Amino acid sequence: MLDATDRSGGTAAASPRAGTALVSRAGFAARCMRVLLSPWSRLSLLVVLLAGSAAVVLLFEPQKLLTHGWPPQLDGAAAATVFAVAYGLCTVAFVPRPLLNLAAGALFGSQVGLGTALVGTVLGAGVAFGLGRVLGQDALRPLLRGRLLLAADGQLSRHGFRSMMAARLFPGLPFWGVNYCAAVSRMGWPSFLLATALGSIPNTAAYVVAGARASAPTSPAFLIAMACIAVPALAGAVVAWRKRHSLRAR
Questions:
Q1: Burial of 120 (0-12, 13-18, 19+ CB in 10 A)
Q2: CA 78, CA 118: separation in Å to the nearest integer?
Q3: Which of 52, 211, 64, 192 is nearest to 123 (CA)?
Q4: CA 217 from chain center: how many Å?
Q5: What is the largest CA-CA distance in the chain?
Q6: For residue 49, which of 123, 130, 105 has the smallest C-alpha distance?
Q7: Of 138, 151, 150, whose CA–CA distance to 183 is shortest?
């Protein structure tokens, strides 16, 4: 009887200790989860992902497609699909779109190259927008201070479609920068993707045609494409210069 009582008492005494340990472990796990899901932890993850993707691009050098051509194992629709996916991922990793557009034209010609480049453009923009919205928005929105930043955020949030159309049509604005700025704002997904698809057509078409006709630099198509690249770039530089002076005057 004494043994049974001792055993019963030992069990009763051990039970609260075990429960306290379980509660302590659950509390520690909850704290760790809150830290991992905090805005700054997610922003740090975004920075690591972008740095890693940029390192992969530097390692594999996709620009070699312009000199070595497309792998012979892929052709037709499969090659266009793979290139569109690679195009999108490369834009997330900060590869300049003009280089990718030239490659699309050189590898697939004007028509297929344009379609492939536009699909890759929208795909890359969507991936960047999603990453920025999920991993960066909560940490970066509280940092939006100053008249210019607040004005840009308000414009993107209230007039998403037309603001994004203007950003895509205006030459010189970095593609990745526009993606992440839009992600930090309150712009909706449909406005962002549709404006990206429509606004990217002129510039993309000019570079794709230039890439497709690069072997004939004196052809009318190549010269027109180069004019379509140079004239908007020059106009954009003039507008940016004038805006710079007006901002200083304020």
A1: buried
A2: 16
A3: 192
A4: 33
A5: 107
A6: 130
A7: 138
Distance CA 95, CA 176 (A): 9
pLDDT of 215 reads 84
| Rounded Cα–Cα distance for residues 40 and 19 (Å) | 33
Tokens of 69: 């051509």
Task: Provide the terminal-to-terminal Cα distance of the chain, rounded to the nearest Å.
Answer: 93
Reported pTM: 0.75
b/e 151-187 (16+ beta carbons within 10 angstroms → b) = ebbebbeeebbebbbebbbbbeeebbebbbbbbbbeb
- Main-chain dihedrals φ then ψ at residue 121, nearest 5 degrees: -65, -50
**Is 222:216 a contact under the CB 8 Å cutoff?**
yes
Regions in the chain scoring below 70 on pLDDT: 1-40, 62-73, 139-150, 236, 239-250
Find out whether 167 and 197 touch, Cβ atoms under 8 Å: no
SS3 72: coil
Residue with tokens 């740090």: 44
**Segment 216-236, tens digit of pLDDT:** 888 898 889 888 888 877 776
Q: Which residue has the tokens 């100053």?
A: 146
Distance CA 118, CA 41 (A): 33
Length of the chain equals 250
The tens digit of pLDDT for each residue in 54-73 reads 787 777 776 666 566 666 66
pLDDT at residue number 53: 78
Q: How far is CA 46 from the centre of its chain?
A: 11
pLDDT at 204: 95
